[in-house]
Amino acid sequence: MIDPVRPIELADVKAARERISGTVLRTPLVKLDLGKDGPDIRLKLENLQPTNAYKIRGAANAVARLSDEEKARGVWTISAGNAGQGVAYAARAAGIPCSVVAIETAPQTKLDRMRALGADIIPVSYTEAWKAAESHAFEGLDGTFVHPFDNHDFIAGHGTMGLEIVEDCPEVETVIAAIGGGGLITGVGSAVKALKPDVRVIGAEPETASPYAHSLGVGGPSKFAAWKASFVDGAGGQSVTQRMWDRMQAVVDGSIVVTLDQVREAMRLMAEKARIVSEGAGALALAAALTGEAGEGPIVCVVSGGNIDLEKFSSLVTGS
Prior knowledge:
This protein is an alpha/beta fold. It contains 13 helices and 10 strands. Strand 1 and strand 2 form a beta hairpin.
């Protein structure tokens, strides 16, 4: 039985913050120096989390919320890498087994880290993984499913980032976050809008995988027929589910689509200006901010993760 969609209340987010405080870092918000004529951009550095990605916030909250009976069955999730690491990390802390239905094209770095955290890896195609995400089931796994984005407690955990953003930058005008399944932006947006309703919450998607922007254009959740795999593996899905569409509509004000070259440039800029290592998905928000479509700021860009092989990172930012 799948729980019905309901709003992420501020009380849910505040309770999550207390629940995960011993596991999750309060990450810094740093200003990116773009010169006196550049926009005011602040970077929320979720790449500094213990698993080098924001997913640990939701995973820690979701696992902590499970009953003893649910924990005893072990947990499983679906992931291209970051959600799997987050759930595996939380499961290891709770002393329970974890399996990850992992997209087989995930970077080896992410697969290795999931295994190092004790996860049993089940490699599948992107299509198989997405079907499991939509159905909330995978044949052969009977543990407790922790959905990587369509899960109330997972999303509430991500909302804790929104609390920190408003506390550290009360003058914020726009928050930009990557959209993959939609859990990140729903959580952050729910918390930010509850505290400051006038703040714009904008999604960022790559041109190769921008189903939310497409869905906005056609007026409802739909599939992105031109989907292509890219180095932006941690965001950009093939479609928007009805449940996540319902969640995002209440708190997301739009989506900015960027090119892969713009993502590479954002990765390079963060490395050069602030010595930040970001994966492709982690640079989407900055790439979107640099288009100028989000205004002059203050703009907070969520650097959602930094799980990328250093050789791959080097080739992307240097063009080699």
